[in-house]
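Run log, item B.
One chain of 122 residues. Sequence copied directly from the ordering sheet:
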Amino acid sequence: MSIPDFVEAFGLAASTLTRQTSALLRNGLVERTLDPAGGVARKFRITEGGLRLLTEQREGIVTGLSTIVADWTPERLGRFIADLRQFNTDIERITGRPWPRKANDVDHTDPSAVRAATADHD
């Protein structure tokens, strides 16, 4: 993504994103790359170190959340997931900034899929 891409996705000021990406660059978590589509703007791409740190942090969050919902019934977890998804979708609709979704994401409305996706973090 480029700075304008980040501005559009997050609704933050370009100056804020420039400071944040500068810190990520200094720490070796992202690198600048040419636009693969041939555009003029430079893009940011996560480095192996950045991906490793992101993965570690995500695993910690998933482990914590899995602990919290471990005793929930599938119905309760399903309701929570559906409500949280609706909450986020409504924010995206109201702000006019829907978050891009990947086709192969876990079906977060299916409690068994969520449990399966987080099972290796228990």
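Observations after the first pass:
- The mean pLDDT is 83.
- The chain has five helices and two strands.
Flagged for discussion on Thursday.
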